[in-house]
Fold:
Amino acid sequence: MSVFSLGILVIAVPVQIQALTGSVWQVSVATALDGAGMAGGMLVGGVLADRHDRRALILVARALCGVGFVLLALNGLLAAPSLAALYLVSAWDGFFGALGLTALMAATPALVGRADLAAAGALTMITVRMGAILAPLVGGAVLGFGGVTANYLLAGLGTLATLIPLTRLPTLRPPPAAPQHPLRAIAAGLAYLGRDRLVAAVMLAGTLHATFGATRVLFPALASMNRLDGVATGSLYAAVPLGAMLGAVTSGWVARVRRPGVLLLGAIGVCAAAVAALGAAPGLPALLIVLAVLGYAGSIAALVQAILVQTHTPEAMLGRVSSLWSAQDIVGETAGAMTLGAFARLSPLLGAAWLGLGGLAAAGALLVGCGPLRRVRGEGPPDGRRVDV
Structure:
């Protein structure tokens, strides 16, 4: 339900900003502000998730996100919608969305058991991607008939409706921990990354992978260049999750890979090649194929990251490490968005080509320089329970 709501929203914000300003750079700024809010929410959420009931955090954060979406709908009703309000609410929703996501990530091993993380991750990706495929298509159709206000209103109502099933979660309190200043708690999470070279290497690879998620800032410009209608524009947003869902459905082999770190970097390399290929795609069918390949490889990379991080991090650190893991995703995507926005002043396709080629070079450098990723064979979590990956 939440992914369906967010998918409807994801098409409305960039399309509205593009319509108001005609600038890919302004779309990139909104993405960067959303990313900054998410980064802050991840860090705060990580500390809170290691101290307080994770169920309560999820419920509060989700409710505040829904309020933000309703505010966007009210702004859309104005004769002259405020660009500043779009930026402000983007940061608001980024913050509280990330806070709730961090708590949910930290709670996942307790809900499903660490031995079943690979299967649970694949199942989650399937259901999430199904929503992400359908939502942009519906959002594009709603955009054509009811405008952005209808999209925002649907997103807000759908997000608030997720509170109903979430109330059925059990109490999810973290293990007891000694009182600690929030900044010291964050510092302890960073110190753990300094000690665990494997998890730190996964984070570094994840930052590179996250930069390719920024390609969506180009979609409004690509739609304009190819003279696409609302439904066709929605198909651009749906192509990546469609590829990701195919990756999740066929991901059973991932748990049997002997060198998951090498697989991770290989999948990231495919993502980079797909982004670079956007500049050579001659029309809508080619664009959709390239974006589906990007989604497929990205889903494999994301699943391997989740397995490695969650099976090699102790329970007492999962909140903070999960927050840092997610925060690096936001940092990477924000950097990618700003890079694309800067290059897009010359040509959107030039920006995609440079980001993709740079990502290929970076993936090759990580393969050579990150020994822990090359050597990992699924040693298992720090508490001694073996988990094969």
Summary: The chain has one domain: 2-166+181-375.
